[in-house]
Amino acid sequence: MATSSAWKLDDHPKLPKGKTIALIVLDGWGESAPDQYNCIHNAPTPAMDSLKQGAPDTWTLIKAHGTAVGLPSEDDMGNSEVGHNALGAGRIFAQGAKLCDLALASGKIFEGEGFKYVSESFDTHTLHLVGLLSDGGVHSRLDQLQLLIKGSAERGAKRIRVHILTDGRDVLDGSSVGFVETLEADLSKLRENGVDAQIASGGGRMYVTLDRYENDWEVVKRGWDAQVLGEAPHKFKNAVEAVKTLRKEPGANDQYLPPFVIVDDSGKAVGPIVDGDAVVTFNFRADRMVMHAKALEYEDFDKFDRVRFPKIRYAGMLQYDGELKLPSRYLVSPPEIDRTSGEYLAHNGVSTFACSETVKFGHVTFFWNGNRSGYFNEKLEEYVEIPSDSGISFNVQPKMKALEIGEKARDAILSGKFDQVRVNIPNGDMVGHTGDIEATVVACEAADLAVKMIFDAIEQVKGIYVVTADHGNAEDMVKRDKSGKPALDKEGKLQILTSHTLKPVPIAIGGPGLSQGVRFRKDLETPGLANVAATIMNLHGFVAPDDYEPTLIEVVE
Q1: I need a surface site. Which of 27, 109, 142, 488 has the fewest CB within 10 A?
Q2: Can you tell me the distance from the alpha carbon of 465 to that of 469, in angstroms, rounded to the nearest whole number?
Q3: pTM
Q4: What is the domain extent for residue 467?
């Protein structure tokens, strides 16, 4: 493929071309203090341990959460999608809440395919909005919901029902009453203007609807029963009364309020979801929406008895799972990422092999390439997907396909056909999400064995390796109190952490092909994942485009 001048990269003045580079992304592999809940520390990981001896010149830490990956605040955990976007794009693009803010402020949200799809129900059916009622900004924001309701009413929604989930986790316990009063005031104004708008059901976020990682489907079922079937143990005439009354129960708090439905004078639920209705889940953060989205979208579903499965027009605020393409419709599209490192390298003749198993294959290809499917240049690229185990939880086979990924990478390196061999090794993340500490230790050991296999191949071809991660997970498997000590639940049991973390991730460079004098710079204030792309381009012998985040390396004479 002829390189147009727009794609031509300048040669690096000090670094040669032609070295084989192995680029390894360890999924869910952060850096944290060693203790019994740090599965990476507790696993035998000699390959990864050996790299730390190169600190600070060839081993360092970079940021993988918050603003470093385009998320709004430093309290936002990174995830695999935004992590691989940043790693591949070399620049930081707005993600999550930020993306929704921009779409709402510009009105673009109401012009997109997702909104057009749900709005087809406005004339004759109800628009249902389901999500966390809070201004915490971690999973959702009240002001975004308000703009969504206003914009929908202005664009023809005649009947609106809101299914609220109270917070008390990202905001103060008890603040739910104020949020409900604010929402009720907005809906009351709409009713004055002829729109039939009201709250239809509710419950606490930890007890109703918002479970994650398939931890407890009963949580989702309680929400389904209230929102879809119009059934709940508590019935009220209005939501303010509901929340105030339920909060008076002994031990009650916002997070764990039981499910309730709002009923009319005859005792009938005011807003069950029925055939022909539109449903929008307005959380922007994905983890606590995926299970609910499966229940709303999957025809083939066996997690609980849905009793009935209404034919609805459903869209998420965003797509919550890029791997599962779930939901299939969404109001805000992923960022438009252009000129990724993969595209530049293809235009400059760099041949690439990319591989992972099914659960992360899309990350090392689609998300790496800026949310883009397929090859940039079929003659120069080969992508290999190894089928993941299915029908079992990942802690049952914690080694997953790490060794198979290692073998494929080794063979690709030794073949001499590829300038870059890129892999994602998913074990730390996928097994970490199960909360099984022993299995996660086994998972980390397997990942390290795969790394060693790749290092050995790089040694043989006198190449270069770069090892990093997309976010933390396996390095801290316990929830912690404000002082950093492991947190206990009401029964005094340890609270296991199954989510990602806010920890930095390691990056290391090495191999016999690494030019003398190459080391990590000390002058970058808070380098993050987006700095990796320019670094890789340099190691391939090129200077990165001017608008890329700066390279992590320098060459000292």
Answers
A1: 488
A2: 13
A3: 0.80
A4: 21-93+336-555
